[in-house]
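debug: dumping io for the single-chain case to check the tokenizer round-trip. Nothing else runs in this session.
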Amino acid sequence: MDHIVTLDRRQEAALQAIAQKFIAQHKGDAVKALKEMIVLNGHLQERLDAVEGRRGRRGKRLEMTVAGRVFNRAVRRSA
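debug: decoded output
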């Protein structure tokens, strides 16, 4: 994904809270948490690429939808 995401203050605060919880799950080890997130994102990207290959141009729209759903689920869980 080669685009920049801009968040409003509410989204930024929610993302910060999620990040802090994720790091806490890794006993405060931010590097370990980052490595796990990279692996998880890699798996998600592989799935998105597979879907994009089957659906052609609709894949980009789906990619944004799936990424948005992942973010929204995380925000709901943190609330």
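debug: round-trip ok. The chain is about 80% helix and 0% strand.
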